[in-house]
Every structure is written in C-alpha cells, then in structure tokens.
C-alpha cells in the first residue's frame, strides 16, 4: 500500500461582509437615541402648541355660529340650551335656521373635553372656554384655559 497524505482542510472562513457587527449596531442605536433626545421635545412642543391653536380656532368658529344664532333668534342660547342649540333646535324656538355648525354634534376640545359655555360672559354676552390639557380651571402652558374674547 502506498502511504497517502491526508490533507488537512482549513476551516472555511466566514464572509463577514453580509452583516453588521454588534459594535456597529450599538453605534447606530446611540446615534438614534441622541437624535430622538434632541428632536423629541421639539415635536412634543409643536403638538402641544398646535392643539392650543386648534382650540382657539374652534372658539372663533363657535363665536361666528353664535352670532348667526343671535341674528335668527334675537338672543344667544341660554345656559341650559348651551352650545347644542347650534346643532339642534331648542324646544319650540321660532326663527331657528340651523344647524349653525357643520358637524352633527358639538365638537370636543382637542384634548377630548367639552367646551364650557356660560351666559352672560364676563365682558360679553357669552363666554366659551376650554380648560386646556389638564381639563381643570387655571393652569399655565398647555394646561392654561383658552377663553373666547
């Protein structure tokens, strides 16, 4: 028998160009964390201010609708009728030509709370307000009350 030489096979090298290393993934996660830490608060601030602006615009819409109600009825809705008098005829009211809002129901404020309507207002025939993000009277910043002028 002829002695044969056995060939020792080297283990196959892995091709590492197809994936990411753990260090690369950690670097990407750190960069994403830094970006979110810088951008996140600005986005949240923008959302808060946009809700406040939306509430102010809704109050302006209510004012226009209430003025139309006044022109038709000769009075503003009573406290018991509230803002719903803008979408549903109050009792046997004569002269009501509503609905005065485009929606079928009175919308809630941007935080999901009901607008508060009172007659008479402080310096006006009525007052409409949103209690802001916290839903209670008073507050500052996003929690500040938004009142019709």
From TrEMBL:
Keywords for this protein: Cell inner membrane, Cell membrane, Membrane, Methylation, Transmembrane, Transmembrane helix
Gene3D superfamilies (UniProt xref): Glycoprotein, Type 4 Pilin
Q: What is its main location?
A: membrane
Keyword flag Membrane: yes
Q: Family, per the entry?
A: Belongs to the GSP G family.
Pinpoint the Type II secretion system protein GspG C-terminal domain residues.
42-148
Q: Which Pfam families match?
A: N_methyl, T2SSG
Question: What is this protein's record name?
Answer: Type II secretion system core protein G
| Keyword Cell membrane set for record | yes
Membrane topology is: Single-pass membrane protein
Where does it live in the cell? Cell inner membrane
Q: Which residues cross the membrane?
A: 20-40
The UniProt entry's GO CC annotations, sorted and at most eight, read:
plasma membrane; type II protein secretion system complex
- Source taxonomy: Bacteria, Pseudomonadati, Pseudomonadota, Alphaproteobacteria, Hyphomicrobiales
| Matches recorded under InterPro entries | Bac_GSPG_pilin (IPR000983), N_methyl_site (IPR012902), Pilin-like (IPR045584), T2SS_protein-GspG_C (IPR013545), Type2_sec_GspG (IPR010054)
Q: Name one GO biological process term.
A: protein secretion by the type II secretion system
């Amino acid at each position: 028998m002829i002695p044969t030489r056995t060939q020792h096979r080297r283990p196959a090298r892995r091709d590492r160009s197809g994936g990411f290393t753990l260090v690369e993934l950690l670097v990407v996660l750190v960069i994403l964390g830094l970006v979110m830490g810088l951008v996140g608060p600005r986005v949240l601030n923008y959302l808060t201010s946009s809700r406040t602006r939306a509430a102010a615009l809704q109050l302006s819409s209510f004012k226009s609708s209430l003025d139309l109600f006044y022109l038709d009825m000769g009075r503003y809705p009573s406290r018991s009728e509230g803002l719903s008098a803008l979408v549903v005829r109050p009792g046997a009211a004569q002269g009501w030509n509503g609905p005065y809002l485009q929606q079928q129901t009175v919308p809630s404020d941007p935080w999901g709370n009901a607008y508060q309507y009172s007659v008479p207002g402080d310096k006006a025939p009525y007052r409409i307000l949103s209690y802001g993000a916290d839903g209670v009277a008073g507050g500052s910043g996003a929690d500040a009350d938004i009142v019709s002028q």
